[in-house]
Structure formats: C-alpha cells, structure tokens
Amino acid sequence: MNTLTIDIRRAEPRDAAAIAGVHAQSWQGAYGGIIPFRALNAMIGRRGTAWWADAIRRAASVLVVEMGGEVVGYATLGRNRARELPQQGEIYELYIKPEYQGIGLGSRLFCAARDKLAAHGLSGLVVWALEDNVNATHFYAGAGGRDVAEGVEVFDARALRKVAYVWD
User: 115-131: string of b/e by CB count within 10 Å (b at 16+)?
Assistant: First the structure.
C-alpha cells in the first residue's frame, strides 16, 4: 500500500516552474469567462518561471502545498495593503490546481498561511476575491470570513467588483 504525503512548506527557487504552472492552470480555471481573455493571458504570461524565482529570492512569503512530491498549490502572503482595514495580515493569493480542488488542500494551505502570518506577529487577516469568482467567495465565507469591504479591479476597461473577507 502506498501512502500519499501532503506537505506545506516555504517555496524555494527550485519550485518556480511548478508554481508558474499552478498559477497558469488555476487562473485559467478561476477567471476564464470573468476576466477578459486578452487581459487574463497577459497577466498569466507575465508570471512565468523567472518571475516566480525572483519573487521567491526577494524573500516574498510564498508557501507551496505538495501532494506526493508534486507542487499542486501556492499562497502568497504578507502585510495588509488596504490601509482602511485594521487587519495586519493579508493572503494575496491562494490557488490550487483545478484537478486538486475540493479535497481540502485549499483549507490546509489557508490555515498554514494564517499561522505563518500570526507567527510573524500580524494579527487579523484580509483576503480579497473577485465577486464573480463564486468558488473563491464561497471558500472564504465558508472559512468564516466576513465580507466587510468592496472595491473594483479594471481589466481591459472592464470593471469587476472585488470583496474583502476578514478574520480578526
């Protein structure tokens, strides 16, 4: 009998290509039909292996979740960028490859990211999600996030509403 291991750890430069692949697949799955095609492809194209390797080297907080030794998800996190919200920490991105969604990996990665922020002394947490990304809004609401603020992101002249979920 084989045992499949699940590990969440800090990303290393050697993970850059795998993270770039997760980014491309998960963004296409999450935002296809929401963000205009050209804008979405341009955003994905800017974040290739070299971009991720540089982000990891610059000491950006990037966590990966591995399943059976394969990177299948990532989260980026740090200080809250929205000055109007009192929460100190923010999860900027949390994505799981589409074929690995729905089995609890996102929840485990979310908890690990929260723990890392708390370990750095950052109290409270904010996560922004596009309102039309129903999977994300249900995930964060289901994780106990309170919808407290709204904003707008513009992609190729198309304005999309975003929602801030917070945890104290």
Answer: ebbeeeebebbbbbbbb
CATH number at residue 140: 3.40.630.30
Overall number of domains in the chain: 1
How far are the Cα atoms of 132, 142, 162 from residue 154, in angstroms, in the given order? Answer: 13, 27, 10
Which residues are CB-contacts of 163 (< 8 A; sequence separation ≥ 6)?
128, 129, 130, 131, 137, 147, 149, 150
pLDDT of residue 1: 60
27-68 per-position pLDDT tens digit: 999 999 999 999 999 999 999 999 999 999 997 799 999 999
Looking at residue 4, its pLDDT comes to 82
